[in-house]
Write a structure and sequence with these properties.
This protein has a 4-stranded antiparallel β-sheet. By secondary structure, it is an alpha+beta fold. The radius of gyration is 14 Å and the shape is globular. Helices cover 37% and strands 24% of the residues.
């Protein structure tokens, strides 16, 4: 299993966080299907202030760069990215892979 941890900042503003939460409470079915179809098995979002952390897992044999390129071309994905971009601190027209920044793992605690 491969695990990827990414981070993005939301725009400042009193309603940004609530609106971003609502968008994910009402995520479009095509978006969920596309994420699963490209080989992403699990995806969790965590929120701290205006920072959102994504934890994404795929099978070991998935080429994640290729999966993200494929995801960007699926129906409604660009529309979804443009919709959530209104809350995200990113360049207009950015793909998901361009907006989210991969975090570097620096420590693992093992028992």
């Amino acid at each position: 299993m491969q695990r990827f941890v990414k981070i993005i900042s939301l725009k400042p503003g009193p309603d940004t966080v609530a609106s971003y939460r609502k968008a994910h409470d009402e995520i479009w079915p095509e978006i969920v299907k596309g994420i699963l179809d490209v080989g992403i098995e699990t995806m969790d979002l965590y929120l701290y202030g205006h920072q959102v952390v994504m934890i994404m897992e795929t099978a070991d044999d998935i080429d994640v760069e290729h999966a993200m390129e494929k995801l960007a071309k699926l129906p409604r994905q660009a529309e979804w990215e443009n919709f959530v971009a209104q809350f995200q601190d990113c360049e207009a027209g950015s793909t998901s892979d361009e907006k989210w920044h991969l975090m570097e793992k620096i420590f693992t605690l093992k028992k």
